[in-house]
Amino acid sequence: MLSGGSDNIIKAWNVNTWEPVHNYKGHKGGIFCLEPFDNFSFLSCSGDGSMRRWDTETGSLLKIWDAHKNRILASKVIKDGSSQMIITAGVDRQIKVWDPRSIRPAFVFEGHDR
Question: Dihedral through CA 74, CA 37, CA 51, CA 35, nearest 10?
Fold first, then answer.
């Protein structure tokens, strides 16, 4: 199990003992989203506007996206057969669709005033 907080740290927990087993550090803002990516990694989104992919086996950081200008409020990994997309939404009033192999969004949707 994973949790993230305003201390900018993601914690992995042992669900049998409820003890923390690993800390993932690197974000410069609170953690707003945690999303499974595959069987071996997960995504985190933060108040620093970045999205990060972490290896659950080694704890290492695999990739960083400078995704939004400010907080990322929501993220979703969508799998369609052998392909994947990541969708993020931020307080910058943008929704972005990402190909995980790229560091740039494939699509950016704008239009909300608030």
Answer: 30
